[in-house]
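Reviewers of the previous submission asked for a worked example of the structure-prediction workflow described in the proposal, so we include one complete record here. The input consisted solely of the amino acid sequence. No template or homolog information was supplied to the procedure at any stage.
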Amino acid sequence: MAKTTLGEYIRNLRNKRDIGVRELGRLVDVSGVHISSIEKNKNTPSPELLRKIAVILDADVDKLQAMANQVDPDVIDVIKKSPSAVPSFLRSAKGLTKAQWEKLEKTAIKMAKKKSKK
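From that input alone, the workflow returned the following structure tokens.
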């Protein structure tokens, strides 16, 4: 089975919500032609446009960014703060299962909450 492209995924989300190409373009401040070219995988949306599309289509922005090979600016900031620790951490976590990633995420969220309370 072929992997769904970013454009196909956006088109599917748009169709599920019964939003036309021109309407989506209007809602995110671009032309319908531009949306169509994204859906046909002729153009890749900018990070800002991708976030707008995610909001309108009620989509997971992180998933869309991953499909577009983009990194959220917040993630870039984290990497810049710990330029050697973050890549090393990610490499060491490479083989984790989905359940292990979920547990790790919960642990990180708890740690961040404790830090913000201080």
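The chain has two domains: 6-67, 73-117. We consider this example representative of the routine output the project will generate in years two and three.
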